[in-house]
Amino acid sequence: MEETISLKELFLTLKKRLSLIIIIAAIATATSGIVSYFLLTPVYQTSTQILVNQSKSDQQVYNPGEVQTNLQLINTYNVIIKSPAILDKVIEQEKLDMSAGVLNELITVGSEQDSQVVNITVQNEDPQMAADIANAIAKTFQTEISKIMNVDNVTILTQAQIGENPSPIKPQPALNMAIALVVGLMAGVGLAFLLEYLDNTIKTEQDIETQLGLPVLGAITTINMDGELNEHANKATMIRTRGESVGS
């Protein structure tokens, strides 16, 4: 019984504060939309792929040992790609107004497990600039790795390209607004229960018994005097009308 009463009180609290919950959720969603659409700068992403594989002639056959060696070199290559030895040359070549450390934060290098294909991903506010940087990194690395490690086993597999209408990877306004809506609803519900908890005013007979521990001897109902007077006036009008009808 207590659980049913408590559940009912929860619903009554939510119903009483429903307008507050809706307002908070709407404000949170609108704020997120404004920030996502008008204040945050869109960031675009593009990537290029390189293949780590020793070049062979027609007479050479598949060698599992070479493949395993190339796979072991990939982790080393991933570090070299993001090193100043490569990035400084890319900055100079593309005339970028940033340091190697800043450029390093925009680059992600990785490969699938047991794959000889390395993905070089670049993020930038300009989609064309992102593609140019990714292609420059791949080409510079292909040239410099033969000098650094005295090997020639890197081939550019695909170049970074942008479509006609590239879409930014962030921000994502729809997702941000959905998250803001959920957070706003949670905040509104929490605030509703907090206000209800802090509200210690006595409104019903049950509040007197609960908070003061006193028995209720009687209750004074609210009488709408205007409504009562109007009702009596209407009744008097109806009686007068009936009397005049009978007299005629």
UniProtKB/TrEMBL annotation:
Membrane topology: Multi-pass membrane protein
Alphabetical keyword list: Cell membrane, Membrane, Transmembrane, Transmembrane helix
Domain Tyrosine-protein kinase G-rich: 126-194
Keyword Cell membrane: yes
Claim: Kinase is one of the keywords in the record: no
Location of this chain's protein in the cell: Cell membrane
Pfam families per the UniProt record, alphabetical: GNVR (PF13807), Wzz (PF02706)
Transmembrane residue ranges: 20-40, 174-195
Domain Polysaccharide chain length determinant N-terminal: 3-93
Main location: membrane
Domain of life: Bacteria
Family recorded in the similarity comment: Belongs to the CpsC/CapA family.
Name of the protein in its database record: Capsular biosynthesis protein
Taxonomic lineage of the native organism: Bacteria, Bacillati, Bacillota, Bacilli, Bacillales
